[in-house]
Amino acid sequence: YVAVGNEPFLKTYKASYLGTTFPALQNIQAALIKAGLGRQVKVTVPLNADVYQTDSDLPSGGNFRSDIHDLMISIVKFLSDNAAPLTINIYPFLSLYADPHFPVGYAFFSDNSSPVVDGPITYTNVFEANYDTLIWALEKNGFASMPVIIGEVGWPTDGDPNANIGYARRFNQGLLNRIIQGQGTPKRRNPPDIYLFALLDEDAKSIQPGNFERHWGIFKYDGTIKYQLNMGNNRTLAPAKGVRYLARQWCIMAPEASNSDPNLPQSINYACTYADCTSLGYRSSCGGLDVRSNASYAFNMYYQTMNQQRGACEQFHNLSTTTTIDPSGSSVCRFEIMIDLGRHEQTQNPNTSSSGRKRRPVTSVAFLLALIIGGVL
Questions:
Q1: Strands 194-196 and 230-232
Q2: Tell me, what's the pLDDT at 343?
Q3: H or E element in which residue 241 lies
Q4: Active site residues per annotation
Q5: pTM greater than 0.85 (yes/no)
Q6: Domains parsed from the chain with CATH numbers
């Protein structure tokens, strides 16, 4: 597949891509045909589930969003004419995140405590209900047999009270069980192709939607497994091999530094501007730290993000020092050590390039790992 954009019609984009997405789709299709790949490679547009809605709160009320209805019909027809699928991203986690009154069990696959009855059909999970809302929308507009694939679905493990390893394992294992069993939905008994999101955490991803955005991976940044999954036929996840780390040392708040030092808040803020501190949020994995540990976590994330370069633990007004004793202790909050990327030069102010010019804040963490999933890949 060739994906044209990603969720271009999100309401938060305020119609920025309404006039360009369909022409881009047509141009890519024309290029594929010109290259002789029109039959082998299919073009599609990954769309967020907010492109359809239901006024009745039931799947049978499904139709495309009124402000993009005609555009969606044009896109679906074009995809259908070119034997290409419609791609939709479905996130039950976001239903739970957006509504504090959303029934928790309905977000998963093994809880029948909050069923939704839609005529002869009873829905016990929001994944099926969401998917079938799209199928109803397609049927109402003359595309009953339109192929659909799930471009993204998953559950984050940190950055929100509902983003945790227990819930992520519960959801993704339930999803895998459906795939293994070949289970579809009430409206479509044959299961769609499903792409799990995501393989790895993304520490530099935008957190505008929420702190959880950097924690969708089933593997951590270094290829270690967050939680085990049964892939069927006795296959399980396997961690990355041969990963090299920097020295076992951490940057922490200095023992002699005072909690009341007026430079402490700005130092923490500085560290978290250039490193990922989303795990420090309320009821996140590191949300229960005291003041000193909170500062140490921020300092260390900055230190590791800067690849333990010289001076990286000296940015904080004499409030920090390095240690070879793991500050994680027995806590579920882990103080990380960065992968060895071979970058050991002296640290500069991350706001300034070597030429002295200002640059945008960037988290300088890059990773490319060879991951083996149960010996399949």
A1: unpaired
A2: 63
A3: none
A4: 7, 152
A5: yes
A6: 2-197 (3.20.20.80), 240-377 (1.20.58)
